[in-house]
Amino acid sequence: MISDEIRVRFAPSPTGFLHVGGARTAIFNWLFARKNKGKFLLRIEDTDAERSKSQLSQQIISSMHWLGMNEDEPIVFQALNISRHKEIAMELLKNKKAYYAFETPEELEEQRKTAQQNKIPFKYNRASLNLTEETIQKYLSEGRQYALRFKVPDGITEFDDIVHGKTTFGNSEIEDFVILRSNGSPVYMIAVVVDDHDMKISHIIRGDDHLSNTPKQIMLYNALGWEVPKFAHLPMILDEQKKKLSKRRNPVSADEYKNKGYLPEALFNFLTLLGFAPFNNREVISRQELINEFTFERVNKKSAVFDMKKLNWINSEYIKSADENKLLELVKQSPAAAENNIEPANFSDDYFLQVINIIKERLQTINEIYHYGDYFFKDPIKYDEKGIEKHWNDEIKPIFISYQKLLENCLDWNSDKIEAELRDFANKNNVKAAAIIHLLRLAITGKTVSPGIFDVMVILGKNTVYTRINKFIDFN
Length: 476
Ligand code: GLU
Known about the structure:
Layout: E1 7-10, H1 20-35, E2 39-44, H2 54-66, E3 76-77, H3 82-94, E4 98-101, H4 105-117, H5 133-141, E5 147-150, E6 156-161, E7 165-170, E8 178-180, H6 188-198, E9 203-207, H7 214-224, E10 230-234, E11 237-238, H8 254-259, H9 264-272, H10 287-293, E12 304-305, H11 308-321, H12 324-333, H13 336-339, H14 349-359, H15 368-371, H16 385-391, H17 396-408, H18 415-428, H19 433-445, H20 453-460, H21 462-475
Parallel strand pairs: 1-2, 2-3, 9-10, 11-12
Antiparallel strand pairs: 4-5, 5-8, 6-7
Helix pairs in contact: 1-10, 3-6, 6-7, 9-11, 12-14, 17-21, 18-20, 19-21
């Protein structure tokens, strides 16, 4: 008996990292549980010993926790339940809801090929269903290999999908599917039903790709006399070319987004919008608001598009409003530091905080601090060519050199003072202040864009600024 309590589960197979599509499924389960004061459970479907690796299970679990979705009960590892799955398969056999099938894989392959040649969809021909008890016993005593197949009843299978509405399948289209392989291992179809039943799952929320499994699972529930949970199948996620998300085009694992400097709250927020529409179509919306607003009535049936630009924008919004100490930790841990040959330990927290505060308005990801803001951590090794072409010439060179002398004597190293002196100097030398500012920016950052250059100069300190200008003059 399923209790009145809402109990949902996320059931990833650990054959890879946590895919963003899987993470979105997990999020909808989690939001539904939190909204309804229910339980959110995690089940690792690791029965495929060849493809599942325990390291990947751990990776998935840590990505789930990174995204802020903790399980409410101990994690279930499906492989530990295999004997229970077998026991239930044997019970179906005993109750004549399943039967021995003695076809060898070669025979089945042959039948499949014939069907293909005749251009008809292959469906198991039920030959073993008609074996006499005597023949079965004979085959068993000969030690023939067998699989157990579920005997699909006549009629139709119907259910009310929470997202798609009434969904009907004709049972005649479904073959007598295998529940126990000839090597004795139970298949996904039965394992998932047994575990969902044993875990008292009330709602199965998963991707549309599982829709065609649902009638088979409902038949198993019915054959076992178990209460059928409710189902909600979520729309698929496509990329901007309306194709299945592919590693070749975009990162697909939550882990990659973490390593690229996306905030978990931002990724969570973004993934929720893939199929769910908050009130007033808000796009930046807190986790608590999402919990409050979550309802399947606002979940779309149509596939959702993974829009990288939107994710970047949402991430930049979260960076802008994040606590500075939290940003500090993320910046110090970012793998982009090593990628840019920068050693965070060489800089103080106070220094990092100054850099973060001046640059965070411009960041789409945490990692960009080391790309766009690399000059805060090391001298530029080259200068933007277009900038040089536009701003550097023989006329300005002596003026810039004498400006450097002035700067050297600047006693009060604050941005107002530096700016006032620069403007005054430009005036006296009959050049535009901007002409010197452009060069200062090029010399100090190597780039033509940066946050306010006087603030950058204050953060870097007089010595660094002076040597960079020297280097620039020598170089050009
Ligand atoms: N383990 C299955 C998968 O990774 C999900 C099973 C389910 O949700 O029913 O696709």
